[in-house]
Amino acid sequence: MFDIPDVSFAIVRIIDRAGKAHIAATPSTFRRRTMQQLRLGNTGPMVSRLGLGCMGMSPDFYGDADRAESLATLAAAVEAGITLLDTGDFYGMGHNEMLIGEALRTLPRDRLQISVKFGAQRGPDGAWIGYDARPAALKTALAYTLKRLGTDHIDIYRPARLDPAVPIEETVGAIAELVQAGYVRHIGLSEVGAETIRRAAAVHPIVDLQIEYSLISRGPEREILPTLRELGIGMTAYGVLSRGLISGHWSKDQQAKGPDWRLAGPRFQGANLDHNLALVEALRTIAEARGVSVAQVAIAWVAAQGDDIVPLVGARRRDRLTESLGALKVVLGTDDLAAIAAAVPADAAAGDRYPTAMLAHLDSER
Question: What range(s) does the NADP-dependent oxidoreductase domain occupy (predicted)?
């Protein structure tokens, strides 16, 4: 495994505008390490080779999350050179944005690109109750997002899903007005298909599509990725470790502290899980021969698919972040890629990536 130097932290006491005290971890001496940067699409910003997906730092997805450790992980990621932070206004129903907003009080905002998804509607009990990407709704959502994050602009703003009741042209057109007003810098998309991508790009330049892409989720390769490349649009790939399934750390008796929605996923259940963990063991053989971890090989594989693809790593602890950063030093040659393809062929996974009811809402799956 490759060494990434530890980050030293100071624990600081922050007093917010309401006079409430907060404890946060911040680098005792902030040093921005060098990381490869690439442009997100033809018209997007320069971003770090890896991005940090922050969803798991809110406790309503992957079980309980440690606030202090989350803040320390955010600080460590930025010090290591990660500039792209991805969140959603519905992650923890605002919790995730407020957490990042707290971190931004001690982080260099001018060095960062913050990507925000919007549109998912939730009830007071946390239930998912629909989707809303109407122009008025998204402008209201952005106003609250800016307040929670404590910033005056969002670098990349994107609908989390296609709203079947609202033409994508109306949604993108409304975000374009926010770009013109200075509240948004760039427009992205998430989990939409090739036709929708083309329609959106005809209204305003699109910098990237956020979509699940990993060794065991290869669907974008059929039509979506070629369309992105034709149009000069980048990809930010989430789920590069398939929500931990191919991290090398998941086991059959995995237990989360608190609710963990992954356990309802088809790939995490019964015989599907047995089959998928066997794929992980085949990948482990390759990783161990290289002296690296399974997660590092899986992340490096995604990065090796093109300089127009930015893997989003979902680390919510510093040790997992350190492991993910090690993937940047894993160079996969032709023989390595052939061995990986033999161990984990396309469409090798058992089970869909989402439950059937959720797949029905994904334009990218149509």
Answer: 49-343
pTM value surpassing 0.85: yes
For tokens 């992650």, the residue is 91
Predicted confidence (pLDDT) per residue in 249-296, tens digit = 998 776 556 677 687 789 999 999 999 999 999 999 999 999 999 999
Domains of the chain: 9-247+307-325 (3.20.20.100)
Torsion of CA 343, 264, 322, 290, to 10 degrees: -10
pLDDT tens, 179-235?
A: 999 999 999 999 999 999 999 999 999 999 999 999 999 999 999 999 999 999 999
Indicate which residues carry an active-site annotation: 91
178 vs 175: CA distance, rounded Å: 5
125 φ, ψ (degrees, to nearest 5): -90, 5
